[in-house]
């Protein structure tokens, strides 16, 4: 028996998220269990936070955030470096 690969797609329902959902579905094999998760649900948002999701869309495979989705998102240092808060 083949072990299922758990794929979680974190989405907010935006067009970029929809594109990722379509891509993941097209790449998934029969042994992939793909779950589309709505970040507007507080339980989903909490799960995403535990995985380190900082922006959507994001994909986790077998409980690990995919490299393409890690390290993104807004942070104070980046905003300040871009000039936010400066006259």
From TrEMBL:
Protein name: Glutaredoxin
Listed PROSITE patterns: GLUTAREDOXIN_2 (PS51354)
Gene3D superfamilies associated with the record: Glutaredoxin
Pfam families (UniProt xref): Thioredoxin_3
InterPro entries, per database record: Thioredoxin-like_fold, Thioredoxin-like_sf
Domain Thioredoxin-like fold, first and last residues per copy: 6-66
Entry superkingdom: Bacteria
